[in-house]
Amino acid sequence: MFVLGILALVSTATTLTFPHGTAVIRTTGSRTVTVRVEIARTPEQLQRGLSGRRSLAPKSGMAFLFPTDTRGRFWMKDTSIPLSIAFWGRSGRILRIFDMAPCSADPCRVYDPHVAFRGALEVNRGAFKRWGVRPGAAVTIRPT
Predict the structure, then answer these.
(1) Can the peptide bond before residue 107 be classed as cis, meaning omega within 30 degrees of 0?
(2) Could you tell me the sign of the dihedral formed by the alpha carbons of 114, 4, 109, 82, in that order?
(3) DSSP strand E in 14-106: where?
(4) Could you tell me which residues come within 8 angstroms of residue 24 by beta carbon, excluding any fewer than 6 positions away?
(5) Which residues contact residue 15 at a Cβ distance below 8 angstroms, ignoring those fewer than 6 apart?
(6) DSSP assignment, residue 67?
(7) DSSP state letters, 3-21
């Protein structure tokens, strides 16, 4: 869940849909990994993220996309899936990767890359490491 400035909650009672696509990641070793993603762009989608979900299929995730360079933080409020998150910049190159722990009660830890980013990709925790994805890898999001 994306947080900018203050921490905000979105009611999980509201039905919110996300468009789908693929994230194509080219590792620093030139290997390509394709991940099915839901795409979050609107303020409501960005705030909701994967909160309230109980599972995430292998090789799937959520891409958070921003039209300009963004500085912000992510948190795991009401997210029960252990996740990894990769932040990428304007060039599409991954800048930072974090492992995040589920959180059901306040206060929840916030994850701040301390850099301006254009997007973030959340996947099951440890997946980036298993796929050989490190900072410097290139991410391209393709809506379907």
Answers:
(1) yes
(2) negative
(3) 20-26, 32-40, 60-70, 73-75, 83-88, 94-100
(4) 32, 33, 34, 35, 139, 140, 141, 142
(5) none
(6) E
(7) EBSB-----TTS-----EE
DSSP 103-139: B-SSSPPEE--SS-EEEEEEEETTHHHHHT--TT-EE
DSSP 18-39: --EEEEEEE-TTS-EEEEEEEE
- What confidence score (pLDDT) does residue 66 get? 97
pLDDT digits (tens, 9 = 90+) for 2-52: 654 433 444 444 579 999 999 999 998 889 999 999 999 999 999 999 999
Residues 6+ apart with CB under 8 A from 116: 69, 70, 71, 89
Which of 126, 134, 114, 132 shows the shortest CA–CA distance to 61? 126
Backbone angles phi, psi at 55, to 5 degrees: -155, 165
